[in-house]
Amino acid sequence: MNGQQQRQIEIIRAVALSAQSLPMLASGLWFHHDIRDNFYYASYLFAAAVDEEIQSLLDNPADSKKKAEGVLARVLQLQQQDPAEPLYGHFPLNLNPSPEAAKAHELPVELMGSLMVYFNTRYKQNMSAELKKSFEHALHHIYAGGFYRKPLQLFNHHEAKYTAAKLIFGQRYGDHELLEDGIASLKRTMERVTVQGMPEYGALPWFWHWVQAFTCAWELTDEPTLKQQLSDLLDYLWRERALFYMKGAWVGAHSRGWPHDAPADRNVLHDYVQFGDFPRGDLIPRTEYAGFLCYPAPEDALQRALKRDRPEVVTKQIIKIDTGEEIPLHSYAYVTKDYSTGGIWERVKEFDNEQIRWMVSFPVTGETGVNQLYFFHPGDGWREGDPRHQSEYAEVLYDRNRILTLFPVPEDAEQQEIIGVLPKGSWIAQEAGLFGLVQNCFVSILLHGQYTFEELEEYNLVRLQGEPAAVAVEVLGREEAEKLAIDSLPSFAERMSGVDFALQQASRLGGKLIYTGISHQDLLELIVASPGQSVARVNREEIPRLGHQG
To answer: What is the DSSP string of 138-153?
Structure first.
C-alpha cells in the first residue's frame, strides 16, 4: 500500500467516524442543506463498515452498514423518476423544509451521478438486494434523463462533468453514439485547455470536479485507447495543479472561491491524498470522493510540487470566452518553499464576482486561522465578515516577492475602505505600515493612507482609507532574510520602514506609486491614469504580462 492509499484510508476512517455519530433527522437523512452530503457521508460509512481493516474502529459495523444503506436509499428515493417531468433523472439540492416537497435541481447529478456509478461498481457485492436494485433503477433514470446531452461551449467544470458522464454512461449502457460523443468531447477539451489554458483559473472548488469526474471515467473504463486519452487529460490537470501548489495552498489568482477556499485553503483533501506534505487537520468542509478516487500524478508534477528547492516564476495566458468574446488574461506567480506571491493582471467580473485578484500564500498548517494575505476594495456581493467579492478598482504590479496595488476608488463608490486580510502571527504596527512574522516568513506591508488593525478570531483585519489608497507588500523567507543580516522581526521592521515608498502625482483616481525594497534593488513603478488604465514598470521598463520572470 502506497502513501496515497494510506491517506485515502485515513480519510475514509475520519469521515466514517464522523458519520456514525451524526444525529439522524426524521426524514432519514443527516443533512437537508445539500442532498449530496448525505450521499458522500453514507458512502464513507458504508465503505468503512465493509472494510475488514477499518470496521473495527466503528462502534457497531453491522449497524453502521444498515444506517449507511438507509441514507443511500433515501437519497435515491428523492430522484425525479417521472419521464414526463422536465428534470427527469435529477435530484433535489436543498431539502428544506421537507425532502418530499423539494424540487429537482440540475446541479447534484452532474458529479454525483458519475460517482454513483463508481460507488455501485465498487461496492454492489456488499449491498443488500434492495439497495442494489435501487441503484440500478436510479442509474438507468440518470442515463435516460440525459443531463449530459449538451454541446461543448465554455469548457468549464459543468461541461467537464458532462463529458465524463457521456463516457461513463455510454459504456455502461452500450450506447455507442453517446460514447463517441464523449470521446469527441474529451478530445476537444484536451485541445482547448492545452492550447488556450483553463478558463476557470484557480477555480476552487470546481477544479476538483474536473479531477473527480475524469478520474471516475478513467477508473471505470478498460478500453486501452480511451484510458490513455483520459490519462493524458488527468496528467495535464495534475501538472496544472503542481504549477500553483505549495504545501496544500493554491497560490496566485482565483477566478472562483467559496468561503472554505479564501482566505484559507481548507478544501485540501485531494491535495492531501496526492501530495501528503502538509497536515490534514480536523476540518473537512467538503468531503466528496477524495477517499475513493486518486489518479497518480505524473512524476514530473510530483517533483515540481514537492521539491521547491529554488524559487519558480509561473506565467500563464488564459483565453476567457464566457463573456461572448475571447479575452486574453495573464497570470503571474512566484513560488518558493516558504511562501508564494502573485495574481492576475486583468480584472474580470467572474461568476458571482468571486475573482481574487492577488494573494500571498503560506503553507497549510492544519490549524485554525488563515494562510492567505491580500488587500481589496469591496465590490458586488461583499458583506462584512466574508473577505471575498472584490471591485474593479485595483491596479497591480507583480515582481517576484513584491506586489504593488493602487486603489483608484471613485468618490461615489458605496464602499470607500480597502480591506486587508492578514494571517495570525507576530505583527508590529507603525505609521508607515505593518511588519509581521508569519510562519517562516517576514512580511512587510507599506501603506499609503490611514489604517486600523483589528485582531479577529481567525485573521487580522486591516481597514485602509486614502485618496487613493495604496499598498506595497514584500515577503522574505527566513533564509532570504538571513542573507540580508535580518534575524528578528524588530530588525526587519527597522530595515523596511526606511525603504523608498511614495505616491507621486497623486489624484483621487491615480498617481505614480514607486517602491524599492530590500531583497532586490530594482525600482518598481505603478503608474495609474484612471481605473483600468495603468502601466507597471521595473527599472523604467514596462513589464510584459506574459513571460515576466522578475
So the answer is: HHHHHHHHTTT----S
